[in-house]
Design goal:
There is one protein chain. The chain has helices spanning 15-27, 43-54, 92-103, 114-123, and strands at 2-7, 34-40, 62-66, 78-84. The chain is α/β, with parallel strands linked by helices. A 4-stranded mixed β-sheet has the order 1-2-4-3, with helices on both faces. β1 (2-7), α1 (15-27) and β2 (34-40) form a beta-alpha-beta unit. α3 (92-103) crosses α4. The protein is globular, with a radius of gyration of 14 Å.
Length: 125
């Protein structure tokens, strides 16, 4: 069972749509159960997280924090957290898909374009 927790969804993007986008992105990796949190935050908070976790002292659009990457867990699998700064994002739907694809282990900085191609395909659905 998939459990999506949406924190602070911005106007114009319903929590139900966030949940649908998370489910689509996870399904593309064969995942259909676990817990994902998607938080929408301000510029200063995403800057703090970016500085703390990536060493980049600047705001960004989306950050992903995978948790249980493989194997069975004692309870519901914690897939991870996605943090999005709406004021730094041109397409909130794209940011949700992008962040969740990172939780599945994809990385556009190291692949040959597969992640961004899949992202475009999922957004067209």
């Amino acid at each position: 069972m998939l459990d999506v927790e949406v924190l602070g969804a911005p106007q114009g993007l319903a929590a139900g749509e966030v949940e649908r986008l998370v489910a689509i992105a996870l399904a593309s990796a064969g995942l259909d159960d676990g817990h994902v949190a998607v938080a929408f935050v301000g510029s200063e908070r995403i800057r703090e997280l970016n500085r703390e976790h990536r060493g980049r002292d600047a705001p960004t659009d989306v950050l992903s924090f995978p948790i249980d990457e493989a194997g069975a867990a004692a309870g519901p699998r914690e897939l991870g957290d996605v943090v999005i700064a709406p004021e730094h994002t041109t397409d909130l739907r794209e940011a949700v898909i992008h962040g969740v694809l990172h939780l599945t282990g994809m990385d556009h900085e190291t692949d040959d374009g597969e992640m961004l191609a899949l992202q475009r395909e999922l957004l067209s659905w």
